[in-house]
Design brief:
The structure holds 2 protein chains of 2 kinds. By secondary structure, chain A is of the alpha+beta class. Chain A has one helix spanning 8-62, and strands at residues 66-70, 73-76, 81-85, 90-93, 96-99, 105-113, 116-122, 127-133. In chain A, strand 6 (105-113) and strand 7 (116-122) form a beta hairpin. Chain B contains 2 helices and 3 strands, in the order ααβββ. Chain B has a 3-stranded antiparallel β-sheet, covered by helices on one side. The chains are: A alpha+beta, B alpha+beta.
Chain lengths: 139, 123
């Protein structure tokens, strides 16, 4: 006579496989969905910081010395200006605004010498003290 | 003969195996993406840190401190980065010109993920 239903052992095997697959699903998928959102923010954060780095370096390349540091603005000898606005989230280089995304920020401008100044740069996981120098870099 | 209803054990197992393979692939895909982002994050931090370290060495030079006196500890303390970062400095001298090579790496586990390098000359 032909068997119509699963035996206990077959049922247990199927339940065991379903359990393994479900645990795999929970281990793999929630991070995937959480991460997708975080990934986008991180990518934008890093892209904006790289863009600001390029803008600042381009500006500094043309300057020889710092004329004045006042209220979040650095004025250079050739009238170029770097300004930090909106708690370090907006950087204005010679009037052109660059918005930093996510947790990225550049703040605390401090003059060190006639051609050097310090800023605080917050990247995804780090808050760094960055020393900038006018003139072309010989890297 | 009566028609069979439902799936056999073999069919169920086959479906489960295929589903597992699919889930595992997705899981590793996510892991790969995570590594890529960590690399991106490291690149951005290293870009700023190398700029700062290079300028710190130049600042020391302008104040009469020779490049040979600049240590990796000085550079790391100056930028105030996390303890995961390591710096290696090497000074070479050729025809009276000193050259400081700064190598920066983030140690994740035991091995460096990526090594970034810059150099400063005393000329």
């Amino acid at each position: 006579m032909r068997k119509k239903a699963f035996t206990l052992i077959e049922l247990m095997i199927v339940v065991a496989i379903i359990s393994i697959a479900t645990s795999g699903f929970y281990a793999g998928f929630p991070p995937l969905f959480d991460d997708l959102d975080r990934y986008q923010t991180l990518i934008e954060e890093n892209r904006s910081l790289t863009l600001v780095y390029g803008k600042i370096r381009d500006c500094l390349k043309k300057c020889r010395s710092i004329a004045e540091v006042k209220e979040g603005r650095i004025l250079f000898d050739n009238d170029n200006v770097i300004a930090v606005e909106n708690f370090g989230q907006d950087i204005r280089v010679n009037g052109r605004l660059v918005k930093l995304k996510g947790r990225a920020s550049i703040s605390e401008l401090e003059r060190v010498s006639d051609n050097m100044f310090i800023t605080r740069v917050t990247t995804g996981h780090e808050t760094l003290r960055i020393l900038w120098k006018t003139g072309a870099a010989n890297e | 003969m009566k028609r069979r209803h439902g799936l056999t054990l073999l069919e169920t197992c086959l479906t489960m195996t295929l589903a597992s393979i699919l889930l595992t692939t997705l899981f590793f895909l996510t892991n790969n993406h995570r590594n890529m982002l960590r690399r991106l994050d490291n690149n951005t931090s290293a870009l700023y840190m190398l700029e700062s370290m290079r300028n710190f060495a130049k600042f020391q030079l302008e104040n009469g401190v020779p490049l040979a006196s600049v240590t990796s500890r000085d550079l790391l303390e100056f930028v105030e980065c996390s303890h995961e970062w390591r710096v290696l400095v090497k000074v070479t001298s050729e025809a009276g010109v000193d050259k400081l090579v700064i190598s920066l790496a983030r140690i994740d586990g035991k091995t460096p993920d990526c090594v970034y390098t810059t150099e400063v000359t005393s000329r």
